[in-house]
């Protein structure tokens, strides 16, 4: 549902958020707890979308403003999300706010400024001193009532109620320095009908009762979660040493969850909400969310057939005591089991427990030689070739990074190793043609033949040209195809068209290992166009995520992964460096080996002025392009910019761009 659709849906259903008052004339205020009545208290609405609390909490406010005031949410997106959560409206696919140019500005009611909190500390002290003036203790001992500063006021009325509002005797249960519950102590039948809607009135912002127990080092035992404040007091009274926290209402489950997200509890929780439909619904929500937060908990019915803990205490204190102790013991065992599982997971990360695995890995590595790239000068720098890890190869456009990586893949395949190529830009036929083109020049040079017999990629792919080829040219192509076929069985190519994700790559690698029993070398061309399933990510975020997953794959399957990367345009005339790799800081930090290609001579020279350098680089690149166009070799510098477990260095290769060949010349560094 879009943002605007959700907003309209919520405003239309606003009445459902409020509880009707006992007289069915208005609604109970979620902030001050009053309901409408003959004296004009409570909240009313004329249009179903704007509400006024006649006790003074708000005037002509919509539901978003009321929720904001009730929950302390200052901005509209937070208010909208809170309302959507209440009505179970999915905002996952909500669109952005519409531009003002497309719709007239909406006139919103004036939002009242939040009122400063009132400190009721002195009020609590006076009320607590009078606790013995009432016999309304609901089976809870005076020691427990005094421990939690429970008090009594003989003639109480809501601080925001009109001066003429009636008073009533109330049990005062503090839920915070600036909030409390005032519970009418009269027998229900003695309460006038018009006042029955206010038997339980909350003053101040809604707080959880005894929430400090969740993080108090002195608690030591699992913590009961109840619905009502008297229920929490009843459990702690029946089972001395136990701790209990009360929601105050099932509508406050989110407040508990928000608190636990911010700071997980020190102890397992025991869910003991009321034995009614609302309690069961809230318990289900808590079970689901606590599971997501990985917070240990159990669910216990310690009330028997009674509705709540206080009713159970009033009926049979001993039975409640026994049930609470059993629930505590069960939760304690469950908490210990969860803690032991966490300790076991932690032990797996301790070095002493992985030391033998480390030694075994070294022993296995004696037989796991490096995989040569086929370029001796490069293998010398890389301690023999490729090892398990993430290799990233970068260069400016048209300098031959795909050709270079493909030649390495062919040379590895020719040695008998499997290679999986994920080509996200070029077709399978182009890659095959590039390999055959390279082999035509390789074989011609090796035999000392005429290089005119070597063919370009286009010369291989265009069938109409074959009629004009000489027998010697056709034979050169056929010999190259035969040579390619000898190791083509070790090359596996997956074409992509915006649909290959890192998950696709991982699944294909896993499947290959499962079927063949052999870990392949993986080549990806190229990193920046791997698809991402999350379209909300920026290009940089997507590349970062993909690079990290490829690094994880190389580690999990113990194999080399070669990823080709583009360069940012600012680096086209600069010496190759780590900052040139496009779109991602993860490439620089997560790769095990970072390789850059550049024309020989691109490095800075001592004392060279910028103008002179720019002129030299232009001439160098022009000369390289001329050589390439004539089928001659360009001199390419291969720089190992980063080698996590080895040395850095550089090597020179001859590159024949027309025929897709890199060659290791004599005397290369």
Computed structural class: alpha/beta
- The rounded Rg comes to 38 Å
Approximately how much beta-strand content do the residues carry? 5-15%
State the separation between the terminal residues, measured CA to CA. Answer: 62 Å
Strand order of the biggest β-sheet: 13-12-14-15-11-16-17-18-19
Could you report the average pLDDT, rounded to the nearest whole number? 85
Shape: elongated
Number of helices: 20
Q: What is the number of strand segments? A: 19
- Which runs of at least 5 residues are low in confidence (pLDDT < 50)? 93-113
Largest sheet: 9 strands, mixed
* Percent helix range: 25-40%
Put the structure in a nutshell:
This protein is 38% helix and 15% strand. It is elongated, with a radius of gyration of 38 Å. The chain has helices spanning 3-12, 63-71, 76-87, 121-129, 142-147, 229-238, 253-262, 277-292, 309-315, 317-349, 351-365, 376-381, 401-414, 428-447, 457-461, 471-485, 502-516, 539-557, 585-590, 610-629, and strands at 43-45, 51-53, 151-156, 168-176, 179-184, 200-203, 223-226, 243-246, 269-271, 297-299, 389-394, 419-423, 491-495, 521-525, 560-565, 593-599, 634-643, 649-656, 661-663.
